[in-house]
Amino acid sequence: MKNYVITIFILFILSYLLSFSITFRRFRKARKYFFFAVQILFIAAGMAAKPFAAEIIEGFKSYIGISAIILIAMISFISAMEFRLNRLRRLDRINTYTAVTMMTATALPIVLLLIYTGSESIFISICTGLFLSGTAFSYVTHSTSMSAKRTVYTAILSPLLLIAVYFIVLMIKQIQSWDVVLILQTALYLTMLILIIPVTNYFSHIFSRIEWTITLIAFIFIITPFSVHLGIIPVLPAFIAGLLFTNLNPINADRFLSLFKVTEKPAYLILLFTAGIFIEPALSGLYLALVIILIRLLFKVFILRTFRMPLKNTFVLNGLGGFEFICLIALYLTNGVDGTILFSAAIVILSGQIIQGVYSDVSK
Amino acid sequence: MFLSELLSVAVCMLGLLFLKTAAPFHYNSIVYLGLIILTALFTGRLFRRIGLPVITGYMFSGLLISPFTFGMTPLSYINDFKLIDYFAITFIGMQAGSEMRMRILKRDLKPIVITTIFIILISAGGVVLVMCLLRNVLFTDPRLRENLIYLIMFLAVFEIAKSPVTTIAIINETGIKNKFTYRILGITVLKDIILVLIFTAVTAFVEFHAKNTGLTLSGFSPVLVELLGSLILGFILAMIFTVYLKYISVDSVLFISIFAFIISVLGDHYHINPLIAGISAGFFIENYSEKNRHFEKTLKKLSPFIYVLFFPMASAVLDIKVIPKVILPVIILLILRKVFVFLSFVAASRFVKLEKYTMTHGWMGLINQSGITLALAIIIANTLKAIGMDYLGAYLKTVAIASIIITDFYGPPLFRYAVLRSGRYFSKTISGENDSEISSGTE
To answer: Terminal CA-to-CA distance of chain B, rounded, Å?
Structure first.
């Protein structure tokens, strides 16, 4: 565990040295792609650490695995805190129809492709396809001008749909296995979560900001292992908790969000390193990634344009963000997705960021 | 609200009990960690509500969840969570170092040094004298009597030990920084440095004497190298941090954590003292870096998270059941500690100008021993075991633990009381300048 932490810290120091270089004027233009370079650094470092990390790979059920899962839960919680459901009141049928169509049209071919390439589990294929059909909502909302409102709302709806569909798929899987105990446990667990959040939210006004942050972190430590025990990827309960927390008490949520946001980027980078350890680079993975990129480009961009959906700057919707990647990492850690698929996903996500970055200014 | 906090602590304890009795599942150690954090947080709030320091609450929660008290948490998990020690010790050292401002130290160096010397001489000498006089009452076991001189020497070393950890925590909690707090902190830090030298000398003497070999000066060189190395490492890291803050200045919270962790890991491998390295780093940044305010703010942001993890874990390894076995010598040592420290302040005031308040209340800041005494006790126990004095080593460790447990509970509240009261006698300053007494320090 100590060696793992040391390696992570060395990587952070390297990334800081990298950022030091872009303070020089001649490299200022590269600033836009700095975070992209840092992500590659961490994933590559994880892949390079693989020969020395045999114990980590075999015993992912050690603290490395659970620390990754906790980070996943934290990022999901923070991501969910950005969703104010009152924005959805501005959605019209066209937005909803567009978002659902886009997701289905993108996910379905990817799922079929994964099944065709020999994925053993239909459940894993469906979940992978679902996550790879997403859209980096936070990037869209922050970088797209509000005049492209339809694009923004479609982006907001994307991860919500993703989580909802994942939840349905999970329930179907549990019902299919006729594991009554598991279904009851899951239902009880999610019910408790839905009840606990309003109760703790009630007490939030008597805690200081720091105390409440510590309390939320402790809750994440408590709920995450139960998720893994029940076979639920930790994204789901943390996302539900974050969604409830931010919408029940938006003023308080804003106070805590700024404190939480400080941890989001370092947590995400540490996860990339952990993912890098489990990634298995292969040519088949590269081909799979290229096909998935083409599917996303085709269905998201061209079909929307062909059917004249009133969306501006649809290339922006082609990006995949950290949220989708962490969903995939979580899926891997809890259900054992093939490392090659994780490799493909990393390529899809990083290339999506490049495409998104290049075209993000069009609508401004 | 008191009831709701008490109820919250009870619910957390029930949760721990449920985990203990239920079938273990993967990662239930992390659930334990979450419940321990919540227990500590609510216990801290409870203690604050009744006027006691929050860290005393954290330490009490550590005893509650300890595997030795009610067996709530498995010992293996507590040992696993000790990774936080790597951050905490160095981090707290950095906080202590950042409190030492040169412009105040220049004024106060002589009183701090003189008072520290008096405390060491009077406390150690006094303990040796009293223990020799009471040896027939306190140490009746023949296994202790046959190595009595070693026993008394080590007890004298324990008498000097004082951890700056709780001192810093109380000063931060109260937010009061005046001449009194600077003096106490300065004395604590200086004592810590001198203690390392004295401890090495005593251990070397015992080892050589027991083995009938000659004591040479070369026995001291490792510890001098360690001290010097720690100071230099702290200076190097202070430079790195200043450059980082000047040119990059992002994720400073994470960077400080990296800082603290690297020092601790180097401490493991290269015999660097992480506490002294942290103090050195904090000192140089505070006094010679233009980014000292940023550094201080970052430390302040991190401290609640560090304290809520560190103090419960530090207490959780203490076995409360040892106290009855050594209660008499521990009570006598604790009484002597107060008396001798008080006398030391009085004696020092004859040679340097000490305010009356510091003279009468300074002893309250030098009670708590905490982690440093435990670390010394473990080293002593291992050293004595290596030279065939297992029983003596075990006895000293028991005395140390009992002493720590008792002082952990009244030491911080007493110091907090003294700090809060000092606000009436010294003008409260944040910068440390214009630190003049409101009155002459007389009541």
So the answer is: 37
